[in-house]
Design a protein that fits this description.
globular, about 25% helix, SH3 type barrels, 5 helices, binds biotin, alpha+beta, 5-stranded antiparallel sheet, single chain, about 250 residues, BirA Bifunctional Protein, domain 2
Length: about 250
């Protein structure tokens, strides 16, 4: 049972984006940590790098969670991305196997994306003031119309239909568990679970960067969240988001 995540739930039938809503209220002093903004439908759902997030009305989990990780130095903000990824991956794993986190925070089953995460922070000096984690899990949608790469839903993966409030409850429990590790300073537990869940970790695969395509092996993710890949040529490359493509 989650203690922090979802202790307050704001339910909306339709909204432009739960992240827009949550980032607007996150600075208000009456908002408690773990507040979850949940929508049945988004008219302008946002994905990473200005992409749209497609979701059929009433079919999927669309939530944004407000965090106040004031204990987290700005240069450690990727830890929040890790715990949210682990929480979403844990939730999806309650329903299907083979769940991985594709760096930095896409949730994959096999070669398909079942959930996405969009984190937005406000920085106060050297620390994070508030952080909003927007999460979209494809649950009961059966047809995807946008040009998003490889979308898939739990229904498509399992042939079942799911009760959305149950999925949201599980999501809260899993994120709660990982957020507690972070709050208690058990970074080691978070880091090792993240690496264990990492898509393509330790196996040679094809990538491309600004120098062209190559084969290499993911060896880790550094403190500031950059992906590290050892090229078969021997060189170690380090990437920010969008600097490397998984082929
Ligand atoms: C991605 O591109 O992978 C991130 C997708 C994040 C989508 C979720 S749905 C709930 C929340 N509100 C938004 O507008 N986006 C996030």
């Amino acid at each position: 049972m989650a203690e922090i995540i979802g202790r307050k739930i704001i339910k909306l039938s339709g909204i432009d984006s739960t992240n827009n809503y949550a980032t607007k209220i996150a600075g208000n002093s009456n908002i408690v940590e773990g507040t979850l903004v949940l929508a049945n439908e988004q008219f302008s759902g946002r994905g990473q790098v200005n992409n749209i997030w497609e979701s059929e009305a009433g079919a999927n989990v669309l939530v944004s969670i407000v965090f106040y990780p004031v204990f987290l130095p700005v240069h450690h903000q990727f830890m929040l991305s890790k715990i949210v990824s682990l929480g979403v991956a844990g939730c999806v794993s309650d329903y299907t196997g083979g769940v991985k986190v594709k760096w930095p925070n896409d949730i994959y089953v096999g070669e398909k994306k079942v959930a996405g995460i969009l984190i937005e922070n406000s920085i106060m000096g050297m620390n994070i003031g508030w952080s909003v984690a927007g999460i979209g899990i494809n649950v009961n949608q059966n047809v995807f119309r946008s040009n998003a790469p490889n979308p898939v839903s739990l229904a498509q993966l399992t042939g079942r239909k799911f009760h959305l409030p149950e999925v949201v409850n599980k999501l809260c429990d899993h994120i709660d568990k990982w957020y507690k590790f972070l709050k208690e300073g058990d970074d080691e537990a978070v880091n090792s679970a993240y690496i264990n869940s990492l898509y393509r970790f330790g196996t040679e695969a094809a990538f491309s960067d600004n120098e062209g395509s190559y084969r290499g092996t993911i060896t880790g993710v550094n403190e500031i969240g950059q992906l590290q890949i050892r090229k078969t040529s021997g060189a170690l490359s380090t990437y920010h988001f969008k600097e490397v493509i998984f082929l």
